[in-house]
């Protein structure tokens, strides 16, 4: 039987039947020994229960030998990433990919070496939805109880980037911290009022210049891609607070998407807004969706340039490396994107946005780079401790089981 293969690896000790060899004298043999009280025999061991225990032990050992990475993504993100293909790649290197279901207890889905997530929806909705609050709380409790699990990326850092007020403060510090690399961020304003005179006064105080890009404060969801280009004080009536106003920089209609994966980064060119004359002008506000102008397949009149416009040189690799290194240290994140443009007049590298766990479109090395980074984390970790089902450790036989192994008999001698 296959079952008895398991028995060979388990030392079974029987103490129920013991024989004694007495070499004492005949006088000793004639003496009547006083019987000692003995403990009652242990209950018989059910074969089915033993099999379950052994099977559970083997599964636990297998679980310890494997490395496990959990993914907590929306259905949309999972499809776009093609997670099933990434799971096949991981399997070839002895890593199990687990799709985490937040509606179920995480303890029974673990343990995990690493958890990769994009909980942007849950974080934003937790502000007003009790169910999202509970899901987020359960997730945080699991992470707190399992400090050995590495989270990509930390929740506080992601929460910060969901707020453009916070992320733009980080960007505005770049020119002070990386002075020698010609990196900057356009002047910007945090807007919490719709009063036009107050906004115009702040624009003058902060020395913003028209045209202005207006973006929502929340940097997540379909609404976050709805933006506007404001050309004068008259257009400030189109501002819908809370939002960010940022000076528009002419950049030759080219956007450089920088995708960061741990210590690696990849730069992909995308179409962007065309150049506009600097300074206020009598022009109506232009409303647009950033996806319509900066996706790989985008085709819009807003991105069209004159043929006479010379092509700008790409950003220097030295500046890109300095930018990514600084942001990684500042954010404490490994999976993020940076939107960069090059000023057509100064050729200065200008950071205009930071994105959480982007789509990595146009980066064929994404899977291999992500897997290498996950493996580099796992190499520094202790082996996983298995989660053992308590029912597998039980030695009490089920009521319907009649098979026993080595039934103990109480004997005296």
Automatic annotation (TrEMBL):
Xref: SUPFAM superfamilies: Glutathione synthetase ATP-binding domain-like
Any one GO MF annotation of this record: inositol-3,4,5,6-tetrakisphosphate 1-kinase activity
Cofactor(s) annotated in UniProt: Mg(2+)
InterPro entries attached to this UniProt entry: ATP-grasp, Inositol_tetrakis-P_1-kinase, InsP(3)kin_ATP-grasp, ITPK1_N
Stretches that traverse the bilayer: none
Catalytic activity field: 1D-myo-inositol 3,4,6-trisphosphate + ATP = 1D-myo-inositol 1,3,4,6-tetrakisphosphate + ADP + H(+); 1D-myo-inositol 3,4,5,6-tetrakisphosphate + ATP = 1D-myo-inositol 1,3,4,5,6-pentakisphosphate + ADP + H(+); 1D-myo-inositol 1,3,4-trisphosphate + ATP = 1D-myo-inositol 1,3,4,5-tetrakisphosphate + ADP + H(+); 1D-myo-inositol 1,3,4-trisphosphate + 1D-myo-inositol 1,3,4,5,6-pentakisphosphate = 1D-myo-inositol 3,4,5,6-tetrakisphosphate + 1D-myo-inositol 1,3,4,6-tetrakisphosphate
Record domain ATP-grasp: where: 175-382
EC number: 2.7.1.134, 2.7.1.159
Any matching Pfam family: Ins134_P3_kin
Chain positions covered by the region annotation Disordered: 388-413
Protein family: Belongs to the ITPK1 family.
Cross-referenced PANTHER family: INOSITOL-TETRAKISPHOSPHATE 1-KINASE
Protein name: Inositol-tetrakisphosphate 1-kinase
Organism: Coilia grayii (Gray's grenadier anchovy)
């Amino acid at each position: 039987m296959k079952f008895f293969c398991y028995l060979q690896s388990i030392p079974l000790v029987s103490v129920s039947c013991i024989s004694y060899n007495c070499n004492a004298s005949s006088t000793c043999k004639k003496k009547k020994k006083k019987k000692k009280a003995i403990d009652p025999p242990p209950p018989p061991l059910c074969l089915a229960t033993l099999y379950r225990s052994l099977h559970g032990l083997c599964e636990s050992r297998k679980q310890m030998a494997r490395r496990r990475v959990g993914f907590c993504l929306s259905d949309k993100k999972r499809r776009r990433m093609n997670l099933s293909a990434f799971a096949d790649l991981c399997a070839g290197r002895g890593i199990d990919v687990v799709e985490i279901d937040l509606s179920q207890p995480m303890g029974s889905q673990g343990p995990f070496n690493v958890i990769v997530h994009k909980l942007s929806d849950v974080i934003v909705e937790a502000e007003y939805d009790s169910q999202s609050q509970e899901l987020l709380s359960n997730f945080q409790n699991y992470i707190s109880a399992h400090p050995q699990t590495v989270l990509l990326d930390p929740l506080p850092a992601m929460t910060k980037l969901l707020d453009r007020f916070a992320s733009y403060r980080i960007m505005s510090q770049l020119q002070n911290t990386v002075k020698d690399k010609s990196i900057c961020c356009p002047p910007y304003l945090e807007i919490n009022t719709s009063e036009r005179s107050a906004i115009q006064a702040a624009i003058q105080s902060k020395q913003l210049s028209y045209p202005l890009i207006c973006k929502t404060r929340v940097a997540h969801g379909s609404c976050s891609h709805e933006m506007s280009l404001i050309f004068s004080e008259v257009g400030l009536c189109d501002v819908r607070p809370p939002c960010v106003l940022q000076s528009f920089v002419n950049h030759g209609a080219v956007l450089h998407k920088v995708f960061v994966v741990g210590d690696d980064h990849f730069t992909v060119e995308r179409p962007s807004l065309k150049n506009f004359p600097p300074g206020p002008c009598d022009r109506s506000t232009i409303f647009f969706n950033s996806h319509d102008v900066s996706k790989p397949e985008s085709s819009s009149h807003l991105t069209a340039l004159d043929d006479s416009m010379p092509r700008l040189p790409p950003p220097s690799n030295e500046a890109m490396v300095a930018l990514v290194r600084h942001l990684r240290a500042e954010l404490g994140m490994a999976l993020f994107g940076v939107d960069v443009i090059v000023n057509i007049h100064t050729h200065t590298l200008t950071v205009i946005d930071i994105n959480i766990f982007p789509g990595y479109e146009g980066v064929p090395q994404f899977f291999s780079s992500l897997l290498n980074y996950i493996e580099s984390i796992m190499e520094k970790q202790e082996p996983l401790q298995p989660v053992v089902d308590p029912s597998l450790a039980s030695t009490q036989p089920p009521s319907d089981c009649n098979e026993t192994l080595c039934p103990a008999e109480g004997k005296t001698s």
